[in-house]
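Run log, item B.
One chain of 241 residues. Sequence copied directly from the ordering sheet:
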Amino acid sequence: MVSTGVDEMQRYGSQAGLVIAMDGPSGSGKSTAARRVAVELGLRYLDTGAMYRALTWWLTDQQVELADTQAVLARLPEPRIVAGTDPASPQITVDGQDVAGPIRTREISNSVSTVAAIPQVRERLIGMQRDIIAAAVAGGPGIVAEGRDIGTVVAPHAAVKVFITASEDIRARRRSADLAADPAATVDTTRQEQALRDQRDAAQSAMAADAVEIDTSRLSLDEVVDLVVGLARDRQAVPHG
């Protein structure tokens, strides 16, 4: 079972580096905003969802039946997943292979929830994520970590917590646009797949009690970034300009 407070506090709680936790569902705009915030504030960046996607991609490539929990757990120690933290060019590799493209397909998007729901998978990847966050805090000004359950589980002591959301229609349209190369990824199909994934991910999608919710439905990317950067500067005395 994943611990939620003491271990994470011991790893970086006494350090001065800033941790910004950005949670929210797919299509809400959190990934793009998180990268921009990291660049603006000179922080590192961690896409935790990419790590679950990378594992799902590897299991699929190895023809492991994702619904067979024991089969997944038997192979879990094998892949070497490395998540880069450069917001200008975030990388994700498995055994040295760049998988940034392959992990963004509809197949992986529709399968990742099955893998991410396994407690042992979460324990392994959350441990890795906490190590990355701790290294960024100890060795630099901090990090923006985005995904699901960042503010509640991965980094509950983050100084800034934001929950990025948007209407179902806006999210479906954004996600469909991201998948423009796939003719089957219509807005209606994407909306249906999105609803199913939201249901599967519900257990990992709670908003932290002390998070600030930002609905991006009617906001530009610049406006979202300005809001998060403003929160960081207010709460952690991050220098302006």
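Observations after the first pass:
- The two ends are 42 Å apart (CA to CA).
- The first strand starts at residue 18 and ends at 23.
Flagged for discussion on Thursday.
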